[in-house]
């Protein structure tokens, strides 16, 4: 894939970039290692000042960078502005909380004495240069949720961003430089995926984090495992959205529309499979389908647009294959199911609701990365949990019920990294984010995320 801005609303290539050569990559690796040697000794207060300044600059830059995001990957401009604002808030959150999150931990005095020590504690120290392989769907947020905690912990970053968002990738490097971070603390590498292995195997790179497809995760994890380097993976998701009889069906249906179509459905944590108890199935489906039909699909630069184009022609083709396969095998498209006829250019796809899903359909097993929802009718709680877990993924989950016993069952039995009741999954810096099964391993955000790229060091003093 060329490193280029291809506007998804038009299909036109607006800007192309030459990938870095081997000598340029080597210079950036050298610069990163030198920067870490200096930066790791800085204090939390100094790091926090730099990160707060980055947040201020991002606030100032939001109108322009939002338009860049819209032109590169098709996100509606109002959503792009919201993404930038969330990034600035997260930078400020880590600037405020990182020192406390990484404070020395002191074991119980009795355990210290029993170990034969006069004193002992645990200290969190930075690992070094962290390679971040990031996707296009949230081109600022995916990077910042790694970079903010990593930089506050004293690490430095190398960003290999998706090849279709090069301008956003270069903006991020420039943002941290303008904020006052030393040259080399955060660098963007405009390289193709073929260059990742050599960079990751370099001894100066200590760890890697990847958000992306299952295939990319397998590849990077295999290389990192061979090199025995710390890895965090956030991969695909096919999150369940369960609606039980005690739910507020109107609220559930309204939220379901947003949960499925935010970012044109191109989100790992978007609800994708809607699992509805038979007692409320008809009412939910009617309201949900009506809400999907009412969405405005169109130019992402238009403030009134709800759903923009998919990020690429290939992405739309992949989605079409899943829907066409399901319909051929007996599924019903209650709404949508094709390209909007009034939008001849660009990579648009209609918000779609499919019912009658059976296990032999690809859409039952594969992630739908676009505004396509599958709806299942279930008879009871047991069947709801069974259908929810009938996936290779386990990123997050949503359950709509006010019954405490049902809520406890969902917490106990849903195979996912998060369980959200009577709302939709959303990431926040205070809460850990990540999944199980083929959705990856490790956690981002919160205290758990900032410690992923730290050397947890036991310090022991003899009597």
Automatic annotation (TrEMBL):
Protein name per Swiss-Prot or TrEMBL: NADP-dependent succinic semialdehyde dehydrogenase
> What family, per the record?
Belongs to the aldehyde dehydrogenase family.
- Pfam entry (one): Aldedh
Do you know which CDD domains this protein is assigned to?
A: ALDH_SSADH1_GabD1
Which ranges carry the Aldehyde dehydrogenase domain?
Answer: 3-459
Give its E.C. classification number: 1.2.1.16, 1.2.1.20, 1.2.1.79
Q: Please give the superkingdom of this protein's source.
A: Bacteria
What general EC class does the enzyme of this chain belong to? oxidoreductase
Which molecular function term from Gene Ontology is one that the record holds?
A: glutarate-semialdehyde dehydrogenase (NADP+) activity
Keywords annotated in UniProt: NADP, Oxidoreductase
């Amino acid at each position: 894939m060329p490193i280029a801005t291809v506007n998804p609303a038009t299909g036109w290539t607006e800007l192309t970039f030459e990938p870095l050569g081997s000598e340029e990559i080597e210079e950036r690796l050298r610069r990163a290692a030198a920067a870490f040697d200096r930066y790791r000794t800085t204090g939390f207060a100094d790091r926090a000042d730099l990160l707060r300044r980055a947040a201020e600059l991002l606030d100032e830059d939001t109108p322009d960078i939002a338009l860049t995001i819209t032109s590169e990957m098709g996100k509606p401009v109002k959503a792009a502005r919201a993404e930038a604002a969330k990034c600035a808030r997260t930078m400020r959150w880590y600037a405020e909380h990182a020192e406390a999150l990484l404070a020395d931990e002191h074991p119980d005095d009795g355990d210290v004495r029993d170990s034969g020590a006069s004193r002992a504690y645990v200290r969190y120290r930075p690992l070094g240069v962290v390679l971040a392989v990031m996707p296009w769907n949230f081109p600022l947020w995916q990077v910042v949720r790694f970079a903010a905690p990593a930089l506050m912990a004293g690490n430095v970053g190398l960003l290999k961003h998706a090849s279709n968002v090069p301008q956003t990738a270069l903006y991020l490097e420039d943002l941290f430089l303008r904020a006052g971070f030393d040259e080399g603390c955060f660098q963007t590498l405009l390289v193709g995926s073929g260059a990742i292995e050599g960079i990751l195997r370099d001894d100066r790179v200590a760890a890697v984090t990847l958000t992306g497809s299952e295939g990319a995760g397998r590849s990077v994890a295999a290389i990192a495992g061979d090199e025995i380097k710390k890895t965090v993976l956030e991969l695909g998701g096919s999150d369940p959205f369960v609606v039980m009889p005690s739910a507020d069906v109107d609220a559930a249906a309204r939220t379901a529309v947003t949960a499925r179509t935010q970012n044109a459905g191109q989100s790992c944590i978007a609800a994708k499979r809607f699992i509805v108890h038979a007692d409320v199935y008809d009412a939910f489906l009617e309201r949900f389908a009506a809400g999907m039909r009412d969405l405005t699909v169109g130019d992402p630069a238009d403030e009134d647009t709800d759903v923009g184009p998919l990020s690429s022609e290939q992405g739309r083709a992949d989605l079409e294959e899943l829907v066409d396969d399901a319909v051929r095998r007996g599924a019903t498209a209650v709404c949508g199911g094709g390209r909007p006829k009034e939008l001849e250019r660009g990579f648009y796809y209609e918000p779609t609701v499919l019912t009658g899903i059976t296990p032999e359909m690809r859409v039952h097993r594969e992630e739908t990365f676009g505004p396509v929802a599958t709806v299942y009718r279930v008879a009871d709680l047991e069947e709801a949990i069974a259908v929810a877990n009938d996936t290779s993924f386990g990123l997050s989950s949503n359950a709509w019920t006010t019954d405490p016993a049902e809520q406890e069952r969902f917490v106990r039995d849903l195979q996912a990294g998060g369980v959200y009741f009577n709302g939709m999954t959303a990431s926040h810096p205070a809460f850990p984010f990540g999944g199980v099964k083929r959705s990856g391993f490790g956690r981002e955000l919160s205290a758990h995320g900032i410690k992923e790229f730290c050397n947890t060091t036991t310090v022991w003093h003899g009597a």
